[in-house]
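Thread: 6-O-phosphono-beta-D-fructofuranose complex, take 2
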Amino acid sequence: MERKLKCIGVLTSGGDSPGMNAAIRAVTRTAIYNGLEVKAVYRGYRGLITNEIIPFKTQNVSNIIQQGGTILKTARSQDFMTVEGRKIAFENLKREGIDALVVIGGDGTLTGARVFSEEYNFPIVGIPGTIDNDLYGTDTTVGYDTALNTIMDAVDKIRDTATSHERLFFIEVMGRDAGFLALNGAIASGAEAAIIPEIATEVDQLEELIKNGFRKSKNSSIVLVAESETTGGAMGLADRVQREYPLYDVRVTILGHIQRGGSPTANDRILASRMGHAAVDALIDGQRNIMTGIQNDQIVLVPFSKAIKNDKPINQELLETLRILSI
Ligand code: F6P
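Output below.
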């Protein structure tokens, strides 16, 4: 018979995202409110293996809701991908008396959780924490809104100089293999276009832009490019324009890790708080192998298998909006 739920472990793993701390706070406080113990695991799955685990009280999560990054540190653990590594992790969890885990992270984190929970029949609930917004089954992920706002601020600034010099800028944003940051970043900052991996293989997006004379009535142009081999990246596209259309005065900005930092927006803090609360409630309810999600402003529970396996589709309406508004 399974042990009654007494102690919950919490960790963050993979790329950090703004709002992770708000989620850690919500998990810790909801668990304590319900009479459970909380143990914090440092450095993600790596810390499970190296046994970097300490008890958390409500004070441990004071004054963190407004901080970006993760107070628990994070890592991408190669050892946890091995059978031997996961065995040590399980033994440490047993020794520490942890009965269930809440893991906060992206695709890789949930994949690790799924493998581990199946191997050891161990209850795990995931919270989608990634700026990429690439998890199926949730409208948005913790950190995405903050990253979008960071992109918007940066593009607003670049536009000032782009307009002054009448230049074409390619601005590369993160997202791994997903175009959500590029597409919505472009709409939010009034950019002329977004080049995203989801449609990069279907059409030559650059060719389309040039053909449609995307610069004809403007004194500057800004194109957001999702980092990805499929799009060719901002550098690749700029090189091509320089070669094929030498009249354009082209510049490139790669926003990089600035997109991962900063104090979380209100939206991200609220999302993380709701998801942290829901994750603990789900464990108390006997649920496992699920991720908390949000759909139409309602918290939902999505099986790991769905969240990981399915590709989250791009909303075609957004592409159309961007296209129309950039005439
Ligand atoms: O998944 C979050 C993310 O920021 C991606 O957008 C990006 O491709 C990747 O992590 C960068 O990872 P790292 O910080 O390890 O270079």
